[in-house]
């Protein structure tokens, strides 16, 4: 999680000056805050995250301790498949994360109806991924999102414009949920070969094979 420090500084002549930092990792921001407090010239010290939510030092320390026992260091993959003959779709997601000094892999898929294209299936897959992150308890931290749908990832990042109303509806829904969860997205388009796990899950969903599993991968280094 990255935050910006807002420091209301009191000068020797009792004038107030508002200073702000660049975005910093929360651990670094808290260390700097302690240095600021040692000056004896802090009237107010707050932290602002990427979603423009303001935190006190006490609240941020509490959040940091909570996150240590919750999923973090999250890398999430997604893929969607669409069958032109049956008009059914399959979505698959794979989530790697660390929790309580262990590493885990979560896999899930789902078969969907009433979608219109492969591109829409990719949006639905990303939405399904965000729902799974919420169920795992992922919140207020960076998440790396990887998929071979460069359209979805580049439109979510703002690199590419979106002119289709149906796709904009998916984008709005996804962005609202990410903001609600306090997730700071990092979008990394990858090749189809690098997305084999999620692709297989999406295809299995089309075949009617439902999967939802969590595997412990061992202790983190």
TrEMBL record:
Pfam families: RVT_3. CDD domains: RNase_HI_like. InterPro entries: RNaseH-like_sf, RNaseH_domain, RNaseH_sf. GO terms for molecular function: nucleic acid binding; RNA-DNA hybrid ribonuclease activity. Gene3D superfamilies: Ribonuclease H-like superfamily/Ribonuclease H (3.30.420.10). Residues 70-207 form the RNase H type-1 domain. The keyword Hydrolase applies. It is an enzyme of class 3 (hydrolase). Keywords: Hydrolase. It comes from the Bacteria. Its EC number is 3.1.26.4. This is Ribonuclease HI.
């Amino acid at each position: 999680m990255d935050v910006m420090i807002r420091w209301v500084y009191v000068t020797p002549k009792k004038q107030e000056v508002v200073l702000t930092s660049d975005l910093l990792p929360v651990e670094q921001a808290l260390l700097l805050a302690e240095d600021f407090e040692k000056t004896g010239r802090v009237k107010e010290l707050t932290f602002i995250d990427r979603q423009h939510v303001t935190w006190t030092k006490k609240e941020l320390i509490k959040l940091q301790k909570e996150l240590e026992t919750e999923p973090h260091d999250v890398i999430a993959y997604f893929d969607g498949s669409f069958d032109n003959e049956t008009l059914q779709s399959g979505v698959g997601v794979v989530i790697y994360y660390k929790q309580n000094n262990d590493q885990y892999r979560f896999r899930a898929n789902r078969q969907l109806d009433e979608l219109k294209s492969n591109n829409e299936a990719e949006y639905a897959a990303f939405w399904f991924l965000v729902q799974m992150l919420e169920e795992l308890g992922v919140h207020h931290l960076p998440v790396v999102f990887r998929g071979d749908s460069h359209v979805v990832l580049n439109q979510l990042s703002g690199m590419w414009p979106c002119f289709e109303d149906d796709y904009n509806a998916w984008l709005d829904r996804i962005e609202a949920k990410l903001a609600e969860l306090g997730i700071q997205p990092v979008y990394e388009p990858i090749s189809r070969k690098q997305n084999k796990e999620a692709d297989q899950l999406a295809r299995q969903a089309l075949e009617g094979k439902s999967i939802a599993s969590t595997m412990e991968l061992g202790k983190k280094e």
